[in-house]
Amino acid sequence: MNKRVYLFQEGNAEMRNLLGGKGAGLAEMTKIGLPIPNGFTISTEACTDYYNENRTINDDTTAQIFEALRWLEEKQGKKFGDVNDPLLVSVRSGARASMPGMMDTILNLGLNDESVEGFAKKTGNPRFAYDSYRRFIQMFSDVVMGMSKTYFDGILDGARKSKGYVYDYELTAEDLQEVIAKFKAVYLEKMGHEFPQDPNVQLMEAIKAVFRSWDNPRANAYRRMYDIPYEWGTAVNVQAMVFGNMGDRSGTGVAFTRSPATGAKGIFGEYLINAQGEDVVAGIRTPQPISKLQDDMPEVYEQFMTIAKTLEQHYRDMQDMEFTIEEGKLYFLQTRNGKRTAGAALQIACDLVDEGMISPQEAVMRIEAGSLDQLLHPNFDVMALKNGRVIGQALPASPGAAAGRVYFNADDAIAAHAEGERVILVRQETSPEDIEGMHAAEGVLTMRGGMTSHAAVVARGMGTCCVSGCGDMQVNEENKSFELGGVTVREGDYISLDGSTGKIYLGDIPTVDAGISGNFERIMKWADSFRRLKVRTNADTPDDAENAVRLGAEGIGLCRTEHMFFAPDRIPKIRRMILSDTTEEREAALNELIPFQKSDFKGLYEAMEGRPVTIRFLDPPLHEFVPTTDEEIMELAKDMNLSFAEVKSRCDALHEFNPMMGHRGCRLSVTYPEIARMQTRAVIEAAIEVKSEKGYEIEPEIMVPLVGDKKELAVVKKVIVEVAEEVKKEKNSDIVYHVGTMIEIPRAALMADQIAEEAEFFSFGTNDLTQMTFGFSRDDAGKFLQDYYKSKIYEADPFAHLDQNGVGQLIEMAAERSRKVRPDIKLGICGEHGGDPASIDFCNRVGLTYVSCSPFRVPIARLAAAQSEIGLMQAAKKN
Ligand code: ADP
Ligand code: MG
Ligand code: MG
Q1: Which residue, judged by its Cα, is nearest atom 18 of ligand 1?
Q2: N or C: which end of the chain has fewer CB within 10 A?
């Protein structure tokens, strides 16, 4: 026999994986002697069995369930299914991690047409008995049978209205009997069979429904969002009922030991008299604040406060509790560490340290790193948001709140921004050419594209709010208008975007700026004292760099030089360079670019004040820069003294079938060494000048992208070293510089030992490395990944969370091999993963030197790095 069922007496808080969060909590509360209705938990392993055994509950588990039920009958002195005095139970789901609202609870199970009469007699309260039964029918039909709630709500509404009542509790016993008859009739009509009368059947069906709900689309979507593995499964709790709907000395409520919104100390809670289960949350009646309980039932209030305090001290964290009062007797039904906003989490962690309940190390572990995002972007004014009109909703691609006037192309957005307007850029989809426009915008809204689309990735990088993939929206870029939610929005109209929810509002909703408060700083300081892994930033402009430094960045891990070429005063020059026929022409065009590049780099060095700066040489395929409209081609033709046709044909010649694997990265420098020459000169001259002007110790790090072979790097490196030494001589400087490479092609990981002979540092470009390892591109994966999630092939987007099993192996191997050749090699990561807590943990464990992420994710990375290190320390202690 495999043990699959545990009495609350048999469990404790440590058994969360087996009993689920709710089961472990009920067991722990039972253990410390709190008033908990008796019950038992069917373990998560039984759920795994259920799925492994073709969605059935095996005989062994069934026997254990009924054995536990016999025990419960004995404890309660009532028999399950007894027609005179039936034992009633609740069936409650509870996974390891709390998944609020994902799986529903069934109350009053065990009632049927006969026992409800006995129940009415026994309690002397027919109204209560029928109320319990109608609730049970409602919940069973909805949760177990999947019937729409609307049938039952409709019947209930009708009953209330025909009697002129406002609230359900006004319904009399007779009214409720009529309601029950109607409920059962609609059940028969829709389901094709009578409402099940056998309590054993009711129980097993309910348990199966909970197991089944683990796999419903809502649950799957939630798990993907919060990285909860499918294989965990859920537990089921079966618990004797206590009744909050027995009359005026009964009730039910929920409470927090501190404010989940702000973290402020003091009990925050609400309750309803004469109510059951979720009535409080359902919002039909307005609940009373918990303080009112002091007047209503002083002894109960006193006891409640004592228990709440006990629980908080026991768990040493803010508790979210559910309780029920049955005829003046208090029961607790749930406790858990309460969910909270990031701001509240910081407040509570700091307060608990000050109260001597936890150590700074524990405080650091308590903050969910990803949640800090909420604090780093401006937010909407809460009151104003409530009154806002939602016209649509799409993917919450980049968090933050943005309000401004709508513009439909980058140029218009830039122009409006220059006039001092707040701008929302609306596009069908964005491309690299829109970058300046995106930078100028408060927020970006696109019709196409997923969470890892160009718009989404770039917006997150910039910390700009973005809502993407709004398929309901019809964008007419020519007419400069879009239609959504029955509204036509034209250029210059105000809209507001909530990048955290994906909601799109009409009008100009005011925002409040995000601040790094005292608690935030305190936690960050603690985090820094525990971490080993350095945190750098991906930054292309001095603004981004300064921002990142303010948020704690210790260097630049990736400066993408191509982003510097899209500015209106530069793009013609780079186009001329690209379309040049001869090396001389190309060099001439490139020479014009040197001053621009140099001033960019100087700006970065100055912003970084001597912190390390890694500059990546030109990476994208050249066709990304070429003109697309006839107008632009004409202009370029004039500029280059060529015919329109000539320019057009040269542009066309750059077309590639698979640009992602085409002429890009270091391949460009192999073909056109003059590009590397120009960039080297700009990097070194800028460093020498800033060093002498500002006195910073600068050691530029030049990074060659997309290398797959040692010789490839050697060829490019030779060009770099030649020019760098030349510049040093010219300027009479002894500046130190470093040449390294990105590891973003699987072959480079395989050949890492050889490549390390040439490279002084590696940076894992995990965006490309992921694409190339999986063999699908980030831009196309959105189309089919949904099907992969549905088929349970992949649980998460490998572009958002590093694939530690596959891509991770390559990283680990490359790290190991390179260290053999060059023990002091600096290893970093600069893909999107550098800002993802789970991926950061991986980077820390394999011993990378630093992670590099977008400026707004720097605090997240600092915290995640600390948590990873503390985790390692704790694991080491255990062994
Ligand atoms: P959720 O996970 O959605 O919070 P729960 O299993 O906690 O669902 O159940 C919701 C509510 O149902 C509880 O807060 C409680 O009010 C009520 N409830 C559950 N079990 C019982 C019970 N045995 N007796 C009385 N009320 C119960
Ligand atoms: Mg609950
Ligand atoms: Mg790359």
Answers
A1: 277
A2: C
